[in-house]
Amino acid sequence: MDIPLRRNVKPITHYCHDWMHCLVVSGVANIIIFQFLRALGKSGLPDIYSMLFRYLGGWTWPKRLHGQDVHHLFTEKRKTANAKAKTFKALASELLSLIPILAFFAATQV
Predict the structure, then answer these.
(1) From first to last of its 110 residues, what are the pLDDT tens digits of the chain?
(2) What angle do the packed helices 92-108 and 28-42 form, to 10 degrees?
(3) Which of 24, 38, 92, 109 is the most buried (most CB within 10 A)?
(4) Cα(90)–Cα(15) distance, rounded to whole angstroms?
(5) Are 100 and 65 in contact (CB under 8 A)?
(6) Using alpha carbons only, what angle is made at residue 52 by residues 77 and 22, rounded to the nearest 5 degrees?
């Protein structure tokens, strides 16, 4: 809709991923969560992965999520894999469940 850009941007010739691919499928959310956890680790908190493993294990999930539980994302094996990849590795459905709880954790525990 920007007139000066019309000669450069031709929307019908461009391909754009949906928001899920941009945000939660190896996207922005994965990087932000990785950086958040890294910053917490550098701030002097004890092992944040084991802390979140215990914290998330205490949540009761709605039945509609069929027992979706995300505490398994915070094992030592995952910590090592995430550090190597420099991103937080998780499925989109796991991240969509995890993000609100991490936000609550950050607001109340950190």
Answers:
(1) 677 877 777 666 555 667 777 788 788 899 999 999 999 988 888 789 999 999 998 887 777 665 567 899 999 999 999 999 999 999 888 888 899 999 999 999 86
(2) 40
(3) 24
(4) 25
(5) no
(6) 75
